[in-house]
Amino acid sequence: xxxxxxxxxxxxxxxxxxxxxxxxxxxxxxxxxxxxxxxxxxxxxxxxxxxxxxxxxxxxxxxxxxxxxxxxxxxxxxxxxxxxxxxxxxxxxxxxxxxxxxxxxxxxxxxxxxxxxxxxxxxxxxxxxxxxxxxxxxxxxxxxxxxxxxxxxxxxxxxxxxxxxxxxxxxxxxxxxxxxxxxxxxxxxxxxxxxxxxxxxxxxxxxxxxxxxxxxxxxxxxxxxxxxxxxxxxxxxxxxxxxxxxxxxxxxxxxxxxxxxxxxxxxxxxxxxxxxxxxxxxxxxxxxxxxxxxxxxxxxxxxxxxxxxxxxxxxxxxxxxxxxxxxxxxxxxxxxxxxxxxxxxxxxxxxxxxxxxxxxxxxxxxxxxxxxxxxxxxxxxxxxxxxxxxxx
Length: 392
What we know:
L-arginine/glycine Amidinotransferase, Chain A
């Protein structure tokens, strides 16, 4: 049975990335235009990524053919990755950015009541409350049938409202739900699909989500949801991800072809703390937008009204390919069970960024992954990965 109400009305919410994973999903690199002249080099970067993730969880890899799987196995074996922790799935994709096109999981804690979405937190009263009547409450059939504590939300990936090759990618969440035997929720606002990418949001697992106006409110450039305003987006993420409160930043970093993804900009590292990238060079095009985002966060509050702690994270020196600025950012790290993987760029700031993150993640090693070749694809570690939370 396909659920007819959003997951938040059934007690589901989006966990934080640092909460325990059952697996990490990736798609083996296959699109040559993503990494011009570097596709084979990037495969070896994938080998290192898998080697560092596998000690703590399964790594589930999408491959488009038997030939690709054989090559991936050879590289992973040579990289000394634990192949016992790797599972391959024959699933064709257009590209490899599973943070945005892959399954986004929501989870229901044991004993969570099944019913309408939770009330809006007190500090949110100035916004319109959740319209519960519009979406209804769970039917008796849904109350009895949706027993799973894990589910997938289909957010109708459309190539960041920019690229034409996305139709295979859009089907990945549908395929994943069927393969894993999980309920699938189709995100909608009224009678229209609601489009959202995993790299465009970051959640603290306790009701707060952070995103950017550039990505989800711009109605002229790469428009995901035409006509949907701030209140509409906030209601949608409340319904489909259980996010009671949204912190809005302004613009993302230069070179980001997604038009403002927050995972190159600002990330939660624990329920009350974010890291925010900052630029020290007033002549750099990132300087003013990043300073404005820092100003916004000075007064930011969490869903419970508590003040947000903000830790400054440096930016590497600008990287270019054929006169195009690349979105090199230390904020594009990935929090796995056994390590925090951080992109590095042969830059003096690499060591500083790794040190800052090591202090913020005392429970797991912080590991640098060389990403100078990887970032040619206009994304790095977080963009390529998608976590599957453990079932409770």
